[in-house]
Automatic annotation (TrEMBL):
It comes from the Bacteria. This is Two-component system response regulator. Residues 22-277 form the EAL domain. Transmembrane segments: none annotated. It comes from Catellatospora citrea. The chain holds residues 405 to 683 of 683 of the full protein.
């Protein structure tokens, strides 16, 4: 009985609790998607040797009427709880693919790929592989220019459906990346078995590279393994020149992080590519 009134009153209370903000965001999220308040930014993924941009990761943001620009950490979980992540995730895929279609190839150089984060629920929905395939057809993006980022935990469950969907998409030319590698269960051995093309090394390792001998040895081990399996490796969260050098010296071929560029609006990606970030 008091919920409507209390909710309204809390809206104007300066010290609103996280809990209340949570429920408010939950209520707003459905509308946000419809009203175009969600948008993507793109962060370059570069070849550490040449500095060339090989791809961009699409990162979701929400322009909230009261709270301003919210990072995904504030609402992805809500979207998962409510099931909204499935339609939102489809919008992300379609939007990112359309952006990628506008990125140019240069002489001798492939057009950059777009890397999209996929949530567990999205991946496990019955028609995930068909949705991706349909969106590729609708947007005209060649399958080899999409990367699907998933996390370790999504593959640990004994889930034939997920593996089948990923194998199907890889068969059609899409690539699969494991995100935040090393933060999950990290049984290195299972890298051999899963349908995978790229390992994104979590930024905690990148930070550790320059501070701990043990961490460096560990990353070298991971690099050796990924090489043996012909996987690409992207070092995440490179913020300093020292970290860039250490990542390259350890054998990471690609990198992503504030040192190169922060996530940027789509309009800036073509400027970025034109400004000499293609050789
Ligand atoms: P992620 O996929 O690991 O994305 C990388 C995050 O690290 C991004 O945070 C990015 O802005 C941040 N980052 C990049 N370079 C640096 C750096 O040099 N230093 C530091 N400290 N951080 C850096 P963001 O955009 O806040 O995204 C957080 C997470 O939200 C993502 O982590 C991803 O798991 C999730 N996410 C983002 N967009 C989507 C989406 O469309 N769908 C789903 N399901 N999840 C998403
Ligand atoms: Mg990611
Ligand atoms: Mg990541
Ligand atoms: Mg990460």
């Amino acid at each position: 009985a008091k919920s409507a009134g209390a909710g309204q009153w809390r809206r104007y209370e300066p010290s609103m609790t996280d809990q209340a903000r949570h429920s408010e965001l939950r209520a707003d999220l459905g509308r946000a998607a419809e009203e175009g308040a969600l948008f993507l930014e793109y962060q370059p993924i570069v070849a550490l040797g040449t500095g060339r941009t090989v791809g961009f990761e699409a990162l979701l943001r929400w322009q909230h009427p009261t709270y301003g620009r919210l990072p995904p950490g504030e609402f992805i979980e809500l979207a998962e709880e409510s099931g909204l992540i499935v339609p939102i995730g489809e919008w992300v895929l379609a939007t990112a693919m359309r952006a990628a279609c506008r990125w140019p190839a240069a002489a001798q150089v492939r057009a950059p790929y777009v890397s999209v984060n996929v949530s567990a629920q999205q991946l496990r929905s019955d028609d995930f592989a068909e949705t991706v395939t349909r969106l590729l057809a609708e947007t005209g993006l060649p399958a080899h220019r999409i990367v699907l980022e998933i996390t370790e935990s999504m593959l640990l469950r004994d889930d034939d459906k997920v593996w089948h969907a990923l194998e199907l998409l890889r068969g059609r030319g899409a690539r699969v990346a494991i995100d935040d590698f090393g933060t999950g269960y990290s049984a290195l051995g299972y890298l051999r078995q899963i349908p995978l093309d790229i390992v994104k090394l979590d930024r905690l390792f990148v930070r550790g590279l320059t501070t701990s001998r043990r961490q460096r040895d560990l990353v070298e081990g991971i690099v050796t393994l990924t090489r043996a399996l012909s996987l690409d490796i992207v070092a995440e969260g490179i913020e300093t020149e020292h970290q860039r050098q250490a990542s390259a010296a350890t054998g990471c071929t690609y990198g992503q992080g504030y040192l190169f560029a922060r996530p940027m609006p789509e309009a800036e990606t073509s400027t970025w590519l034109a400004a000499g970030h293609l050789p």
